[in-house]
Amino acid sequence: MKKWSSLALAVMLSTAFALSGCGGNNNAPTEGNASTPTNAAATEAPESTTAAETAQDTLILGRGGDSASLDPAIVTDGESLKIAHQVFDSLLEYKPGTSEVQASLADSWEVAPDGLSYTFKLHPGVKFHDGTDLDAEAVAFNFNRWSDPATEFKFEGDSFDYYDSMFGPEDSRVIKEVKAVDATTVQFTLNQPQAPFLQNIAMTSFGIASPTAIKEKKENFKNEPVGTGPFVFKEWKRNDFITLDKNASYWKEGLPKLNKVIVRSIPDNSARFNALQNGEIDLMEDLSPDDLSTLEGNSGLQKIERPPFNVSYLGFNFKKKPFDNVKVRQALNHAVNKQAIIDAFFSGQATAAVNPMPPSLWGFNEGIADYEYDLEKAKALLAEAGYPDGLPEPVTLYAMPVPRPYMPDGKKVAEAIQADWEKIGVKTVIESPEWATYLDDTKAGEKDDIYMLGWTGDNGDPDNFLYTLLDKDAIPSNNRTFYVNEELHTLLIGAQKETDQAKRSDLYKQAQEIIKADAPWIPLVHTTPLLAGKANLKGFVPGPTGTEYYSEVYFE
Amino acid sequence: MNSYLLKRVMVLIPVLIGMTIIVFSIIHAIPGDPAETILGQKATEQSKQALREQLGLDQPWLQQYFNYMGDLLKGDFGTSIRTKTPIAKEIMPYLAATLELTVASMLFATVVGVNAGILSAWRQNSWFDYTAMIIALVGVSMPIFWLGLMEQLIFSLKLHWLPSIGRMDQRNPIESITNLYVLDSMIAGRWDQLWIVVKHLILPSIALGTIPMAIIARMTRSSMLEVMSSDYIRTAKAKGLSQFFVVYKHALKNALIPVLTVVGLQTGALLGGAVLTETIFAWPGVGRYIFEAISSRDYPVIQTGILVIAFIFVLINLLVDLLYAAVDPRINYK
């Protein structure tokens, strides 16, 4: 043992000695590399040298996190849905770059006049990646899998959260029955009309999976998904990369244009940007606004903006005095300088929010003016409310302890607001408990006077913002203001039952007027997520909900 | 020696049980409703209730602990809440990635650190000694985050010598068998791939290995200086043995004990630094596995991850103790 170990040590140390020479510092590896600089340059070729010669047909995308699972029905996180979006098609889809619905697996559909029945005609001849046919039975199988609480295809730990939240939990399902009329006709019967039904059906979560694959792979299906989408799942190394191959027999003519897509998880924003500049990836998500100037100075790269589809806000706790007083709420609305906040903390990559929903969503009321930043008006309103010298008690403002897509640094923004409010005689104590406690506290509404929170849209329907966040039915799950307005409630419920989109749009515009006047919130900003890609990358249309088709992407 | 080994291993059992209790208590002391935090604002009450039942959160504390221990003994580490996959199955590739990075970093740290220490001691007060010790001083206080990004900036962006992230070239992927890519490329006989894998290892192992390297260099230097001034070295020199032989054969062996301790401790400490390195270099290792679990409140993964790391730490300590005996016959454990 002794002999062996000293021999081994001697060998190791003498090689080390030879290798390191006198340069006992960081130079060693670079010296080793310098002997084959051409080789290194060839494998990690920067885009300028070789890209022009052979058209590139592989896209390497860098993103911040990994997927949780590849079965879209059981997940709620965007990173998972992004991949599912490539592998699965839904009956309907959103038009690229918008939240408008258009045909996908269903070529056409008919709605019964009472809104209780939808009949979809499927695109003929579509096949799943495993070679089986997409037919009406397959569609029915998927919907039954999600709705039947006793289904044998719900595996350990799975829950179909999006199905429950879009089509009602077990005791109040919107969809009564899904049945195959013939091979290409599938009929949905509803228990009650649901206006956003088509919007909901188009969500990636309701991508149609191969029944054969689910039956065969069982719980492994979430690691080896099989759909009808433009790309076929190939390999997944967790927290590292996902490889998707071209679906050579994709039913949409001429698509996909790429041969292969590799999606890498690169958590650090700066490292991801370094990798893009170094040519190791072709496209990256979530560029730091700080890196914007470097990006714009690099002619080999391009900036891509995703339309804002979120909102961050301050919510008044109606359970606490004096925030049940509309004058006080309006006064505080007047005392927040949104533009200054955007300039200071968002590098300009945000727009001031006027309404509780983003302007890119249909039904947005353009006619509403914001409470302008005016401290005199704020003081006057406070005086009207009976507080000529400002509020007697300090206000407890809950500021988020964690960065969110709609609010990168809640505490700093809260401090800016604190300074503004100080000027109208409102003292603020900022509290920022740990995230779980934060959510519990704001839900209980006992500790906070005003809280900061936000929301990213799930689908392209205003209902998903207005009803979900401000209706009395949403107390206390998402409506943590405890704001109740019966008139608003009637409007929002009415809009849910109306199937004519123009009429619904009017209802939502009215709803926004009521909300503006009642001022249960101070809407803060809608953020614009930034992406960056190689300059020769074309056909990438950023989608508001954070999912895009890579099928139209190509390199020039 | 064998009875010592046995005794030493037996001691591990209460240590490991203690670790499970501590980890379990910490996780359960975190305030808030785990079901709500895990599933997020969008979840329904039903799925939250289902999750509570699945996690056994509706049972008494002690019952939960015994269930947990029972499962552990059966080799069942639970199911990840986020990915809904058994942890025992999921954790292996992460462990392999971390192992590869740790070994490379320690190789760098030990080889460079020990040699720099020896040379510094051998040529005490020379320019080399001063330079090496200044580098060591800077190295200890270098934030991994900053160092990693600087490396990327210089060696990838400016010089194009080395890749900045990941474990391999995605455009020319490697078939993984053991998940240790150095080994995999050798098994496949792909020497070009091996070179690419090694290139991917260089920057992260320097980032991760710099602090241990500096500490090891300083420890080796002081330990060598002490040994070099002892009588038997003077005797050896007087016998006319070559300088190299005296330093590397006679002096080093006796100077190695404290160095070994430091190497062991630093290897354990690497596991902590690995989270940062793995994040910057997009290295899919255990550090990031745990980090992501923490941000998504994946309690079973956090528990298992911390236990695994603690277990490795204990194992390294055991290994160091055994190495003492191997290196120095005076250490007798009877």
Automatic annotation (TrEMBL), chain A:
UniProt keyword terms in alphabetical order: Signal, Transport
Xref: InterPro entries: Peptide/Ni-bd, SBP_5, SBP_5_dom
Disordered as annotated region, ranges: 28-53
Superkingdom to which the source organism belongs: Bacteria
Domain Solute-binding protein family: 100-473
Signal sequence extent: 1-20
Protein name: ABC transporter substrate-binding protein
Automatic annotation (TrEMBL), chain B:
Keyword check for Cell membrane: yes
A GO biological process held by the record: transmembrane transport
Membrane topology term: Multi-pass membrane protein
ABC transmembrane type-1 domain residues: 95-324
Localization per Swiss-Prot or TrEMBL: Cell membrane
TM regions (residue ranges): 9-30, 94-118, 130-149, 194-216, 255-281, 301-327
Keywords of the record: Cell membrane, Membrane, Transmembrane, Transmembrane helix, Transport
Pfam families: BPD_transp_1, BPD_transp_1_N
Top-rank taxon, per record: Bacteria
UniProt KW Secreted keyword: no
GO cellular component: plasma membrane
InterPro entries reported in the protein's UniProt record: BPD_transp_1_N, MetI-like, MetI-like_sf
Family: Belongs to the binding-protein-dependent transport system permease family.
PANTHER family: DIPEPTIDE TRANSPORT SYSTEM PERMEASE PROTEIN DPPB-RELATED
The name this protein goes by in its record: Peptide ABC transporter permease
